[in-house]
Amino acid sequence: MNPVDQYLSQLNEAQQQALQELRFYIKSIVPDAEETISYQMPMFKWHGMLVGFGAYKKHLSFFPCASSFSPELKKEIQPYLVGKSALHFTPDKPLPKKVIRMVIEERMRDNAAKMLAKKKK
After folding, report:
1. In the 8-state DSSP scheme, what is residue 11?
2. Cβ contact 80:61 at 8 Å
3. What is d(CA 77, CA 24) in angstroms, rounded to the nearest whole number?
4. b vs e for 35-59, b when ≥16 Cβ sit within 10 Å of the residue's Cβ?
5. Is the pTM of this model over 0.85?
């Protein structure tokens, strides 16, 4: 069993289902992203850390692995944003796919830019 499957197997059914749906949606957007466990939670790497997710007692979280966002994205994520970079949701009120896609696409642009900057050095 891979580590992400192992992580999900420890959750209740509603949490498992919600995070599996998020996981598969992330994979559909970035099929070549590498799944891993970091900070004891599932993460996706694509030219660096991209996004992650986790389950907690009263909520689920989606982590964009960034502390700043474009104004357009910040407006979209504001209703879900807790702290600097965690988006909270529950199994019965999942994040809109539009928000997830916007986060992932912005993170991909950020990671691609960082990769290019490294190559130029």
Report:
1. S
2. no
3. 20
4. beeeeeebbbbbbebbbbbbbeeeb
5. yes
Burial of 89 (0-12, 13-18, 19+ CB in 10 A): buried
Asked whether the beta carbons of 23 and 43 are under 8 A apart, the reply is no
What does the alpha-carbon distance between residue 15 and residue 80 come to, in Å, rounded to a whole number? 17
d(CA 100, CA 3): 23
Residue 94 CA to its chain's centroid (Å)? 13
Which segments of 1-121 are extended strands (E)?
34-38, 41-45, 49-55, 60-63, 81-82, 86-89
Distances (CA, A) of 77 to 6, 20, 21, 98, 99: 29, 21, 19, 10, 7
pLDDT reported for residue 119: 81
Beta bridge partners of 89: 60
**Contact assessment for residue 59 and residue 48, using Cβ atoms and an 8 Å cutoff:** no
pLDDT in tens, 38-63: 999 999 999 999 999 999 999 999 99
